[in-house]
Structures are given as structure tokens and as C-alpha cells.
Protein 1
Amino acid sequence: MSQIIQTQKGKKKSSFIEFLKKECVLVIAVTLAILSSFISIPKLSYIDFKVLILLFNLMVVVAAFKELKVLDSIAIGLLKKCNTYTSISLALVFIT
């Protein structure tokens, strides 16, 4: 029984290490965030809640468009009108 538990702990530990190896950018970002919090104390005023609310609302709208397949129909319409890579690229540039 104890051997099974040790094996499971070893698997969890190795999978955690593999996750850290795959996500090296995340590890570096978290490390730098922790180190920078010692240099200057974080304040709640640093967070711009208006931008966070705006981004959340944008995510909700895009999720609704995805559910209704609005973006798919726009893409199909664009591909029907544009025949070459250049015209598709220009259309995407002018849309944005």
C-alpha cells in the first residue's frame, strides 16, 4: 500500500516538474513578479479595473459570437468574395 502511495507521489512530482519545464515563460514571469513585489510594495491602485471589466465584456461578446457562429459566417463571406491571398490579407487589414 505504501509503495502505491509513493509511486503516486513520484508521478505527481514528475508531472509537476514536466509542467514547469514546458511552461518556462510562466515560471520566469511568476519569479520576476515575486521578486518585484519585494522592491516596490504592490498597491490596489495599480490595477485598472475599467480595463479588466472591458476585457471581460469583450470575452463575453466573443464567446457569444462563437456560440452563434457569427464569426464563421463572416469568414465564409470574406472567403467567397476574396480569391487570392493578397485580397484576403488586404481585406483583413482594412477590417481592423
Note: The mean pLDDT is 88.
Protein 2
Amino acid sequence: MSSFRRISIVRALPLTSACSSLTCLGPLSRLRRISGALLLLNLYIQKCYIRCNVYTFSKTTFDPAIFYGSSITFLKSVTCFKNDNAEGGSVGVLMEEAMKIPPGELPWGGLQRLSLLDYPGRVASILFVKGCNFRCPFCYNPQLVRGEGREIPTQEILDYLKRRKGWIDGVVITGGEPTLYPGLVEFLRELKDEGLEVKLDTNGSRPDLLRELLEEGLVDYVAMDIKAPLREESYSRVAGVPLHPREIRESLDLLLSSRIDYELRTTVVPTLLGEGEILEIAGEIKGAKRYCLQQFRRTPFHLDERFSRVPPYPREFLERIREKISGYFGECLVRGGARSER
């Protein structure tokens, strides 16, 4: 990469442990830049290389109790990022453009031919749609959110899936945000005509279209994000756009009252969510069939690149929360890092 990302390292750690210690934050008054020295490191993170400036802390040790405690007030005070990612225009413009796409057509930005993980119990292909009405700063797919890159024709997608019949059980529709596009309905009808099961990933912001899909039986499994506690300020901060969560609540009610298989999931991002917020979310969605706490994955490619410097919570932190809330749900999982455990 041509750009440098500033990353802090506690002590002189071997490369194998550096990935878990990058960006460990301490009081900025303790931070001492190495005078006159710039070290270039190639760190292997999520199979991608980044270059970084190296800093040290003076007489500072990493205290997980401070960094990962039940209160992340200190952490927020150091790295509460302002979302400056408004690329791609307003949500209103995006919706207007989405309505112009012909029925059955969608702006496909990617195809993963085979997955054994993304659709529980199924061998599936994954389709990625371009465009999103959220600007979550930690998003792993900024090129899809911005609508960048080559667009795959819908007919090419359908031809591929027809050739794979017998090899795959289902299709995952993700993005981006698939429910932005009215053409999704006709596309899913074609998939069902081919006998394929469908899993939909959604942010829950289009309950009208979700209701249509459920009523027509066009989806078999829905994975819906619960980004934050269902309060306007909290949801807007995590989603990166001004947002009242009434549509999220409506979509949530649709799933809770349906017979479809589904999961609710929250990506637990340091600086945005802590234990208190997760407990609040759990109380708001109590009674759901399945709730997943997803580990934040640090990569070089977040919508806001500063999240490349934010380390994930330890798995033990998420497991501790899971133990507190597991009784609220039929099933409660921690997903990410090591294998999910019930």
C-alpha cells in the first residue's frame, strides 16, 4: 500500500504477538515517539500486509482491565472516531437510484463460489450487492458500500448458479444492503424456481421489503444486524448516518413473530460498543431464537481506516457477556476467532 497507518505497539514484541497488541492505547502523555527513526514493518493481518509507523510507550504496560473493562469510557475518550465517510452521496439519492434498476436486476459487486460457513448447515454460494444506506465506520467492505469495482450482470450470476445445481444447497445474499433494491424480489423468485434455499443478510432498515419476502416465502433464513441499542443517538453513531431505529424495530418484530429460521447479530466493536451496550441490546431483543456476538475483525480495509488500529476485544470478554445473556435466547453464540461455542 502507498499510504502509511500509524500504529502503536506496547513493548518490543515478537511479530507473532504484535498483531494482538497493536494500537493498545494508553494516556497520550505517555506516548513517546521514536526520535529520528522510522521503522517499516510488514505485519500479516487477515492475510493482508500493511505498513506502519512504530511508536513505543514509556514505562507503560498493557492493562486489559483498563482497556477491556465493563466501562469503555476511557477508551472512548481516546479513540471515539468521527465518521467522515459520506462517499457515494446521501441515502435519499441512493434510494432514488435503486428504484431505477429494472425488476430482477441488481448491482452485483462480487461472487464467492463456495462457502461452508456463511449459511448454517448448507453449502452455499455468496452474492454481494453494491450500495448501502449505512456508513458503519468499521465496515469490512467499503468498496461495496461505495459502489466501486466491476459489476457482474445478473444473468451471469443466474447462469452460474444453474450450473452449480446439485453442488450447492443455497445462496447467501449479502452486501452492501440487498433490501435497497426492489428487483431483489424477482431475483429471489428465480432462485426459488431453481430449488435453491436463500439466506438474506440485512441491516433491517427496509421492513416493507422484508415483509414481502417473508410473506411470499422467498427467504429461508435471515441474518439481521442489531448495530447498537435501539436509541436514535446510539444507532446513528454506529451506523454512521442519522437514523431513527423505528424501521429496525419493525423488522425485528417481523422476525420475532415469524416462523422463519433467523439470527440476530451484533459486531462488538471497541470504541463503539461495550458490555453495557450489549446488555442493553440483549434486553431489547429478549426472546429471540438466536443471537450472535460477532468478534470485530481488524483489517486494512475498513470504511474508516482508523479502525485498522483498533484491536478486537479478547474472546473471553465476549464469552463473559454471553454467559450473562444466554438465558434470554433460544441460542446464544460467540462468533469469530476460535470456533463458535454454545
Note: The longest strand covers residues 108-115.
Protein 3
Amino acid sequence: MFTGEADLPESSKSLTLLTVNLVLSSSRPMHQSQISEDVTLNCEVWGVHDGMEVEWYFQKEGRGKKLFPGEESHISMEQGVEKSGDLSLTVRGVRVQDEGTYICSVKAERHKIQQILQLQIRQPPKVTVIQNASPTIDLICRTDRYFPLDVKIDWLLNGVPIPNPDLESSSHRRNSDGTYNLTNILKVPAPAGETVPDIYTCSVSHVSVEEPILMNISITSPDIQSKTSYISAVNQVPCSQKLFFSCNMVNLFIVTSVPFTFVLVIIIWIKIHKTRREEKKMV
């Protein structure tokens, strides 16, 4: 009800009655969904239901079309909507192409009203980081199957942003389902000497996530990696008191990074020598 009496001249005072036959409402005019999810676009009518006509329309990029829930497999409406007043449309297995504007339209007697709803696709990226060590160290950060297009990639070293990083980046590649991929490559120097490992972080920001996605990778000096592999070989060789000198010679060769093939020859010689001594004792 609307009254127009307040602050009006005496001659203009009047009482106006407004009668509303239909009301359309939606609890959520804006909806967001990931790919393959089911989403229900809420639309409810209040008022006269007899003889009511319900139609749904879809608009995207300046083009529109009428939807037919009974004929299209991935959209549906509840049965008996004219009586219940629930005109909601369910989109099953949401796809990128389902993003757009949906219009819930109701006709009853001489009246026509509409409710406009938006569906946005927000697909977070899948992030992986790998190392390519030929001949320099390249750290490859892959962001796959995200939507919409814009994505931001930053690199950190031990938790601190890298100033002027040496980067290579691919162009955005579109997948068959409408999502996008992007590859970012960071060229880094090898850690010098026997230092603690460097921790590199690929930080990916996207509208689908509130906080950046962080993926870490540890880079160790090549010298440390090679010595570690040699020492692990030594641990497999049992040292007895009679072979103390020979075993320690093997340790010495390994620590000084003698080629692994030469170390294996020494180990084999030790085992043969030990076997012959045991055979002589038995005789």
C-alpha cells in the first residue's frame, strides 16, 4: 500500500491503493559453480498460479535463446511448478558454455514479470612444479584447466619474491572443455658448495581461489647430490676388522668424488679377496 498524503498541499492529499498480483523472487541472483557440478538457479513466484506460463531464457555475448527444460538433458525443472510456485532451473554437470545470464519469465493474465540471474564459472587451476636439469636448472610451473582466463604467477626464493626473475612463459592454451593452461619457466643458478637447499615457490593467483596456490620445490647443490649417492653405496658394503684398510680406502675414494665405476671395481675386489681367504681357512 502507498499513501501520498505526507507534506502535500491540502488540495492534493489523496490515498492510492496498489494491488500486486504477482511477485518473483530469488534468494541468490548471483551463482558461482565449478565445472561438472550441479547448480540450481532459484526462482519463486508469489501470487496467482492458475493459467500461469513459465519460460526460461539464456543470454550470452549479446545472443539469447529460449530454454526447454523438458527437452534438454542437462537442464530440468520440478514437476507441478504452477502449483508450488517453485520455478527453479537446475543445470546438471555445469560446462564453461553454461556461464551467462538466465531469465525466469512468468506470464499470468495480463501481467508479465521477469527475474534475472547470473551464473559464473570459477574453476581453480591445477598447479604442478617440476625441475629440468639440462644443462641449466629450469623450474617449470604448470597451471592447468582453469577458468576464467586471467591467472598470475609469481616466484619466491626461500619465501622472498625474486627480483627480476629470468622467466619464459607460454601463451594461454585453450582446452576442448573451454578451460585454459599456462606454463611458466624460471631459470635458476645451481646452489654453490655445501649449502642448505634453496626452496623455490611457485605462487598462483586466480579469481577462483581466495588465497594464492603455493607449490614448493627444493634445489640442492649437484656436488651434495653426487656425494650422497656414493655414500649410500658405501653403506651396503660391510667392513670387517681384517678389511678395515680396504673399506676405508673405499670411503676415501667416495668422499673425494672418484667416479662411481672405479668405486665398484674396488668393492668387487674386496669381496673376492674376502671369499678367497675364507676358502683357504676351510681347506
Note: Residues 223-282 form one domain.
